[in-house]
Amino acid sequence: MTRQSFDAIVIGGGLVGAAIAYGLQRQGLATLLLDEGDIAFRASRGNFGLVWVQSKGLGAPHYQRWTRGSAQEWPKLAAELKERTGIGTGLQQPGGVHLCLSEEEFGKRGEYMARLQREAGNFGLEYRMVRGAEARDMLPGLGPQVVGMSWTPYDGHASPLYLLRALHTGFTGAGGTYQPNARVEGSSAAPNDFSVEAAGQRYRAPRVVLAAGLGNADLAPRFGLEAPVRPERGQILVTERTQTVLPMPTTTIRQTEEGSLMLGDSKEDAGFNLGQSPEVMRKIAQRAVLSFPWIANLNLVRAWSALRVMAPDGLPIYDQSERFPGAFTANCHSGVTLAGTHANRLAPMIAAGALEPGMAPFSARRFNVRSAA
Ligand SMILES: Cc1cc2nc3c(=O)[nH]c(=O)nc-3n(C[C@H](O)[C@H](O)[C@H](O)COP(=O)(O)OP(=O)(O)OC[C@H]3O[C@@H](n4cnc5c(N)ncnc54)[C@H](O)[C@@H]3O)c2cc1C
């Protein structure tokens, strides 16, 4: 007989749900992971793969710390997944750069990084603004139009698809139950007692985690939560494999383990339209060629668009229901970067039954000025 009662149900099998489900199952909670399937919007299958720190958390030091914490957790998570599943995530953390193609961009970037460092306070933020010959030593093949770059030691990249596969394999390997093609339709909520209907089955658990990406906007109110997320489109281009080695990723260009270059990615307000546009693709390619002129010799072999999961202020939303204790939600636009904290820090909080007080700034109550006051 199909099991119908669990310690926790996670709705959404993308990077966020899979990392949390993996963390919960590893903590010993019998966990069910429900995923809608290929017809859903799935950011986790179309992203760029950066494990990125240096552009995160301006004006939100709690997010800066959370992101950096995740970059620190990543090597542990990658090693553990490799050991448990045999799947390598391709993690490399050689540091990373943001390239500036004009003096104006360089000046603005310098101010941005200085402010980020001030806001980091005692936590600190190591970075350098690098110019000229030094920049060209660090990244051979830089184009003459590159004026300089910001560098931090924390940045890196990984394969998002291998990560997703490793999390799923690690989850089921630890005894978790994964149910694909199972869109949650009906549900009922009471404190520490939830039931959801998916694929003709009804499941119950004292904990439920909403990690359905853009689907959270509809699901959250049913569990006494808010997840006002909207789509933001990003387009990505991929070149053929090349033997030229890019020693570290930049904000918009990274080399996969297999040798392809990924070029990206745009930030567009296009609703739920998953189309691609030649103008945006041209801009992405032009900037890549100005950054590294040798890229012009490579053929493009693939291109796609995907939808980010964006909160109104661009920061993650982590929340717990006051009305229905035991219900949680997790939403973010950096699910690769944050996989480390989702599996190793957030999942243990959910397993313990409550988010730590330090997570309060991530609550969706920040959008509701009266209740936040
Ligand atoms: C172009 C682009 C580039 C990006 N680059 C990076 C990057 O370099 N680094 C980084 O860290 N992040 C990046 N991201 C962001 C990252 O991809 C997302 O943060 C992450 O994928 C979000 O994961 P998720 O699990 O919340 O959402 P999704 O991947 O969208 O998964 C949600 C899942 O929920 C399921 N679902 C929805 N509704 C229901 C329902 N009712 N019942 C059951 N299941 C449901 C869907 O089937 C889906 O699988 C990028 C995103 C885009 C679009």
Automatic annotation (TrEMBL):
Keyword Membrane: yes
Pfam families the UniProt entry points to: DAO
Residue span(s) of domain FAD dependent oxidoreductase: 7-347
GO molecular function, one term: oxidoreductase activity
InterPro entries from the UniProt entry: FAD-dep_OxRdtase, FAD/NAD-bd_sf
GO cellular component, one term: cytoplasm
Sorted UniProt keywords: Membrane, Oxidoreductase, Transmembrane, Transmembrane helix
Transmembrane domains' residue ranges: 6-24
Protein name: FAD-binding oxidoreductase
Organism this protein belongs to: Teichococcus coralli
